[in-house]
Amino acid sequence: MAEEDVVPKTFRALVESADRKFARVRDLPSYGRAQGQHYFQKVFKAYMRLWKYQQEHRPELVKAGLNRWEIGEIAGRIGQLYFGQYMRTSEARFLVEAYIFYEAILKRRYFEGCGVKDLRVRFKELRFYARFLLVSLILNRTEIVKVVVEKLRALIYDCKANFRETNFKEWKLVEQEILRFINIDTTFTIPSSRPFRYCAMLNCHPNSVPYVARFHAKKVLKFRDAILMSYHRNEVKFAELTLDVYRMLQCLEWEPSGSFYQKHPAEPKENGVAVDYSGASGLIDMNLAADMTDPALPPNPRKAILYRPSLTHLIAVMATICEELPPESIMLVYLSASGKPGQINTSHVETSGGSRRTRKSMLTSHSSLEQNCSATESHINGVKGPSDYYNDYLWLGPKGNGGSSNLYPGDIIPFTRRPLFLIIDSDSSHAFKVLHGAERGEKAALLLSPLRPTFKGPSSADITQNGSQFTLFLTAPLLAFCQMVGFSLTDSDTEVLNSAESILSTAFSKWEVILCKSPSLDLVWAQVLSDPFLRRLIVRFIFCRAVLSAIWPPEGSDQYLPLCLPQLPNSLSPKSDVVQSCVSQLADHLKVSNYFHFGDS
């Protein structure tokens, strides 16, 4: 073999070997603690060897016909591997590494300049833009998202002009999806708004820190794993990430506070010992000055993201995670879905001259609402029969798929043998009240959405347009409040926004102290109060319940109010002074007090 043939043939062999290994890990499940870890290390090692080989022999490979897009494809595969590992572990460093490689591909223009007649390469470039957009969205890199969207749009236009016989309708839908997403996501519409992620500077309230630090329940659980699922027809999404899951995903992660990307140094080892490939230096030489990772932060809880799963797949994932849950740990399950196929319940509040009147949604008949209320009436009276667990349900399936797509409260009961923090966001959420007292081992913490959302006007009420109101209250309470009352926030309202956030922070701090000091706090809540993510969800639920209680009169308001089981202390009820004063102060600050009634103040 001629010497000049050795390098390109070795390179092609390395490419084929890496691609074979990549195919084995690409479709592995993204849930479970040990799924694919061995294969991930092997395929990563193969791509590291390939990347270094092309770096060391770049002149010979270029002379032999190596194209720049081929280098970009290798870097893109490494980015895919990092992102896949992030989805399996929720470790921020893997998401950052994926971003580093994708950004390098963009800046070095690996795909640009190739022949416009090569349709295969054009499809590779389209897929690269779509993957880079997903990573940038999760990292909240708003400016780079806008840049990549424009490049994607230009490439689609160019492809349609040069490949007229090829249908690019699917890619046009991708463009429409991302535009719809960023036009609704407040990260893009209000850049000065607070991050969804937990920020120690913003969410750790100094006045309550000593009480939380000293708080010690009889039993303390660690939040280790979460399942996030949203299933609505025509909901806002990009790729397989819906708007509601996107918000909840970020709500359960740490916001880095460092000013530069930092990585954990590790010496590579062989002989069966896992190798840490977290560092990018030497692979793509970049100095990424961005607030992306902070090694001082605790690890994020693992999250299994399920996009439109079948009922059996959802149950299988829950079973796997429940089985692998470490001792003294709790699993969070977030389920957002309609209770009836293709049905969305809405309501809104109208004001006229200071008077209030309510108008019920015409999308759901009064008779179906009565069925929802009567289905759980037996549970309220303390009597539960077997049928109570299989009346109402969440709908997880295409239209006309029958009962095989119904998730009933009874389907959740087997998983209550382990600690469970369950959030149900649905127009049939109250049906899941029957789980309280029916657990098989551990009492579950239940946060249940209202059956109907509440809005000043009908324009914001559509889940398919704005995402769920209850989920927004749990992930961005001030934005949810403003959206509900029709208070239009823009990025020029920074002072108003900051003052409103200060009102909420002061109130949340007081409520945390009350929770820590309350002798009537149920153990279900006490055992998770030390966890910052779950504590923040509890406090935000209290706010959501108080706001909605202040809008609706007591009679007939059950369908418009969220529920929690077991009950939280009465000292934090919607009618308590310390809670009601927060809603009143916020409403006065935003000049929307006419929508609320504080008769018991």
UniProtKB/TrEMBL annotation:
UniProt xrefs under InterPro entries: SCAI
Entry-linked Pfam families: SCAI
Gene Ontology BP terms: DNA-templated transcription
GO terms for MF: transcription corepressor activity
Protein name according to UniProt: RGS domain-containing protein
Organism this protein belongs to: Gossypium darwinii
Taxonomic classification: Eukaryota, Viridiplantae, Streptophyta, Embryophyta, Tracheophyta
